[in-house]
Write a structure and sequence with these properties.
This protein is mainly alpha-helical and 123 residues long. It contains four helices and no strands. The protein has a single domain, classed as Up-down Bundle (de novo design (two linked rop proteins)), CATH 1.20.1440.60. The chain is 74% helix and 0% strand. Helix 2 runs antiparallel to helix 3 and helix 3 runs antiparallel to helix 4. The protein is elongated, with a radius of gyration of 15 Å. 34% of the residues are buried.
Length: 123
């Protein structure tokens, strides 16, 4: 089966793992949050994956790096939503910790991936 470029990226697979974790956790949000914080944390997590996929289709390393930067910003949004979610008692401290741990690993990989892309600019 054909594999798209983004499917070969370790950072994309880490982002996919985070999305699956968020979806597994978010079901427990109260109904009143369905279109608020629950939706926001899911959309932010999917945005990380989407930006990595879209960036992989860009022809210049500078453009690719820009999408990696946006993916990192979306990751920070996920972590922030997790903080709010735990404070509002929509998720547990352990769930927030797990999101933060996965986020920290993914974040460091995204930073390195972006540095790699930028090192190729002008080459």
């Amino acid at each position: 089966m054909y594999q798209f470029n983004f499917e070969k990226l370790k950072v994309w697979h880490l982002a996919k793992d985070l999305v699956n974790l968020i979806y597994d956790i978010a079901w427990q949000y109260p109904e009143r949050e369905k279109y608020n914080l629950e939706s926001q944390i899911k959309r932010a997590a999917v945005s990380v994956m989407n930006n990595l996929a879209e960036g992989s289709a860009r022809s210049s390393y500078r453009d690719q790096a820009r999408f990696s930067e946006i993916a990192y910003a979306s990751l920070m949004e996920v972590v922030n939503c997790a903080i709010i979610s735990e404070e509002r008692k929509f998720i547990t401290k352990d769930e927030k910790k797990l999101i933060r741990e996965k986020g920290a690993l993914l974040g460091s990989k995204l930073i390195n991936y972006r540095k790699s892309q930028l090192s190729k600019v002008g080459n």
